[in-house]
Amino acid sequence: MALAEDTLAGRLISLMPSGVDHCSMRHMVETSEQITVRNGVVDPLHTAVDGGVLVTIWVGDGHGYAATSDLTDTGLQSAIDRATVWAHRTAGVGAVAAPVEAGLSGEYHSPVAKSWSESSLSDRLDLLRLHESKLRSDDRIVDTHAGLNWRRVESVFVSSDGAVIHQSQDHVVPEMRVVAFEDGLTQIRSFGGESSAGQGGLEVLDRFGFADAAPGIVEEAIELLSAPNCPTGTMELVLAPDQMTLQIHESIGHPLELDRILGDERNYAGTSFVTADMFGSFHYGSELLNVTFDPTVAGQMASYAFDDEGTKAERQYLIRDGLLVRPLGGALSQQRAGMDGVANSRSSVWNRAPIDRMANLNVEPGDSSFDDIIGNIENGVFLETNTSWSIDDSRNKFQFSCERGTVIENGELTTVVRNPSYRGISRTFWKNLSGVGDPSTLKVMGLANCGKGEPNQVIWVGHASPPCRFSDVEVFGAES
Amino acid sequence: MSNATSDTVRDVRTYIDDLSEYATSHLTGDEVLLASFDGEDSDFVRFNGGKVRQAGSVQQLSADLDLSEGARHTTATVGLSGQADSDKAAIARALSTMREQRAVVPDDPYFMYSTDVASSEHTNPGSAPDGAGIIDSVTTEAGADDLVGIWASGRQFSAFTNSLGQRNWFDSNTFNLDWSLYLHADKATKQGYAGFEWNDEAFAAKVATQRLQLDALRRDPITLDPGDYRTYLTPSAVKELTDMLSWGGFSLRAHRAMDAPLLKMVTEGVSFAPMLTITENTSGGVAPNFEGQGFLRPDAVPLITNGKFASHLVSPRSAKEFDVPTNGASSWEAPHSIYMDSGDLATDSAMAELGTGLYVGNLWYLNFSDRANCRTTGMTRFATFWIENGEIVAPVTALRFDDTAFGLFGDRLEALTDTSEVLLDPESYGARSTNSARLPGALINDMRFTL
Q1: Are A56 and A138 part of one and the same domain?
Q2: CATH architecture of the domain formed by B6-217
Q3: Distance separating alpha carbons of residues B380 and B362, to the nearest angstrom
Q4: ipTM of the complex as predicted
Q5: Which end of chain B has the least Cβ crowding within 10 Å, N or C?
Q6: What is the pLDDT of residue A2?
Q7: What domain count does chain A have?
């Protein structure tokens, strides 16, 4: 593709240095708007625009990066010079060799049906105020919060291998939260936020049922005030899709990140109980467990055509029929480990270097209806909406809590319970997967707060899942 | 690699002043502009296996603008390039957009900013080496050991300006090396070395201490059954617990929303042990003493005094909403510089006083399992040992705890050490943190471990 030098990509290519083994440059700019209403009062409207270029240079096993928001030729050249100095400085003490890139070109843009910018701010405010007002429908609701967040990330990636990639992603994140309080007891129900978010425009609100959400979370929060505490015991556990997102994220996603397996994260996010020799032989879960890395799902949070190292993104099975087959590792990690991986090298913002991240990491649907899943459970609990998450640095021993539970007795959902928690060990938990919902029960969701990396990066990821059943899980409630 | 010099700092400060003057000169009517500027010129060197995994430099500067007329206002963050023409154009665009938005948004009944012009200045030039200069020191000291971690250094700037003429300035030049030495699998020991002046001998001493712990980690680990164990928490482990208290525990807004983990201290008189005193100690920390509405933070805000809840952290917005004075808290109403008074347990005697039990080097990935009761779960991590008769017996396989801070810092808190450690936060989400803590170790009679 011939590029005029007056385009940003053309200018970056024209500045590509010689005398180095490899160079890539990525321009990323993020534009966002955040509208929040709390207890009937509109919080200060917030908009943001920030962006810049990250230059990465390789000289042998030495490499360096430099990030600058100065997009003049002088500013860009200064960043190239700094990155080059770093590359020479770290040559001989570098932990990895220069990447081999395909030099692919292409583009990706989020599918947008109802553009955010084509609606007026006044309309967006009215919409949010209307639905927030529905949250204040009971005196026992003592705190309400509703938000509409929009973000567009546009990027241009060029490399000395000839890659020229243009991508843009639009995200819409609706959220609602109520705090119910009575007789010294607090209970919370929420909608959306980090789990019910997706790529697209205002149609994302329809996709997640934003317009109908308020009455339900109010009713459920009030119901929890008089609900009994979650029972304690070892029982059947059924997780709703909005809790499965967290379960997938923490106890499949992070353990399969190849940079963790290679030790990069040991000082901060942690290592993994998964080792390189387990791929191809370790049964991660029961035969019902099928997990894909799939950045091709239209409208999911982390869909894209290329990762931030210029690798083409494709759907891949990580776990097939329970067998662990492939890690979450980008081109550089694959090269270091001598393993096949996926296109998941991603940066959270313009001034951070790419590392192995989850993108869309999904549990594939099975063939059970929801009634099938709970139908043969004598004693169990159905849990919805994460409220607390904790897992060890090997991503093995976990304890998660949810906003709402419902007891399952003799195949029926019966009593709503509050403060439900469960704990387990990743290495064995998924082997007790005993039911997976069919395609009609699948929900495409995600998380917007995955933290990792040194320096730190927080990034959005996608997770899709049907409800799933697990056998013999330790479940318990709270003291209150 | 960082190219920050004192000339650069003066240049940045002048540059920010010029941008502020430019923005103020473009106000109309009775508009008031609040502007916070944050920037850094940072080096990051990431290590794995005693080698450099990633190294680089980041130059960033942004402005947070709040444009009001009366009680109507909107806010914007604008990334800046350091090029005057483009930055002035970006600010002009933001002001124009905010004006258009202001016509749409309703009055904000909780909008409050400081009208007292209280300018201030804090500068700490430091002499931390840059990242490129430190690579030899780290890789040489690591030798053949498996060192993994992150070096961050360079100058940071924060400024507040408003159209009333207030100017607050903060800059510092710090380093923060946060690293672990690994033996194998998850057997490792963690250390931090941060400050303003690097000293090779001080770094070597910390690594030598780690190597002693590595010797102990070579012993066969033991796996403890779930149960209650007498436990010593190092200051690093205590910090994980105080971080949880800080997650809404002192926030006035969280208390009024009935969603604060320390709510029962206010509503039901629950208390910690009398030896526990916690302060937001701005004067002893390394964070700016001003916030985005122009209020200055007092030198100290008592949070817990002799075990009793002392005061909330109150942002200007909460102050207006709940009709109480602000104490300059940020919008999250969490401490930036948390300080816990030391106790009377001789630090050198901590293991002897522990006798038989757990020595916990670090805690990890904490979260509330029952927020209303300040019950927290999390994992042990890094150097954690089983102790008998004051001596290390063996490292302990990672354990999950699930226990309430009302007990851990309450009737089961036996002693606090007589020395404290200063812990500068190594986190760098969005920007290098300026948070810090000064904390003693804690001897706890029984701590509940569950998995």
Answers
A1: yes
A2: 2-Layer Sandwich (3.30)
A3: 6
A4: 0.95
A5: C
A6: 53
A7: 2
